[in-house]
Write a structure and sequence with these properties.
InterPro entries: NAD(P)-bd_dom_sf, SDR_fam, TIC32. 33% of the residues lie in helices and 14% in strands. With 244 residues, the protein is of the alpha/beta class. The chain has a domain of 169 residues: Rossmann fold. β2, α3 and β3 form a beta-alpha-beta unit. The longest helix has 20 residues.
Length: 244
């Protein structure tokens, strides 16, 4: 298998790439609570207080290319900065291009050797996602890391340009089995935000993995809040229902 999916659960902390172990439902909850809430180290040797620089100490990312969505602020900015610090060529997928350029300039000022580019990406717009993927694929750059970080939270109810509830359209990620994406829900969800982006970039990432003999990785940044959904489950047929 050339491409691996890794879930990076970051909780509500300000650091990125904190080295939290992959959670296993039920068994992993207490471990994660100890790491996040109490700052205790897990099997990886890191905790919620570990910084991205600490986690990546000694890693040489020269020759790798990473896409980081939502890189113009917060965790995305820190992820882009530290990846650049470790020699990775970083492509910042940002909705606000001006803010993205400011972040790029700040990174290059701190790290003169940094390789950072900004590209416009509005994950709530399927047209924007398709254009971003097409432009990146035609650039000739390899893709070794895809960090799906961008997201919005608790916004006023509104629909995206594609008439889908905005937060769902922007943030949506589902599990994928390589060779055959699987998502069994009888609504048109295959075109949402990060899910569409990931599928459009898979061939580029697989090609890079075959050429370089280095396994690609897709990281979906999430939070502990994913445990607190509706008890009866999500009503996918009412995603656009403001009252629901």
């Amino acid at each position: 298998m050339y491409v691996r999916l890794a879930w990076q659960n970051t909780g509500f902390t300000t650091h990125s790439l904190q080295g939290c172990v992959t959670l296993i439902p039920r068994k992993g909850y207490r471990l994660f609570t100890n790491m996040w809430l109490f700052g205790r180290k897990g099997p990886s040797g890191f905790s919620s207080s570990s910084t991205a620089e600490e986690v990546t100490q000694g890693i040489d990312g020269t020759g790798l290319t990473a896409i980081v969505t939502g890189a113009s602020s917060g965790i995305g900015t820190e992820t882009a900065r530290v990846l650049a610090l470790r020699g990775v060529h970083v492509i910042m997928g940002v909705r606000n291009v001006a803010a993205g350029k400011d972040v790029k300039e700040a990174i290059v000022k701190e790290i003169p050797t940094a390789k950072v580019d900004t590209m416009e990406l509005d994950l709530s717009s399927m047209a924007s996602v398709r254009k971003f993927a097409a432009d990146f694929s035609s650039s000739g750059h390899p893709l070794n890391l895809l960090i799906n970080n961008a997201g919005i939270m608790a916004t006023p109810f509104m629909l995206s340009k594609d008439n889908i509830e905005l937060q769902f359209a922007t943030n949506h990620i589902v599990f994928t089995l390589w060779k055959q994406p699987i998502f069994i829900v009888m609504v048109n969800l295959e075109h949402l935000g990060h899910f569409l982006l990931t599928n459009l970039l898979l061939d580029t990432m697989k090609k890079a993995a075959r050429t370089s003999k280095r396994e690609g990785r897709i990281i979906n940044v999430s939070s502990e809040a994913h445990r607190y959904t509706y008890k009866e489950g999500i009503h996918f047929d009412k995603i656009n229902d403001q009252s629901g």
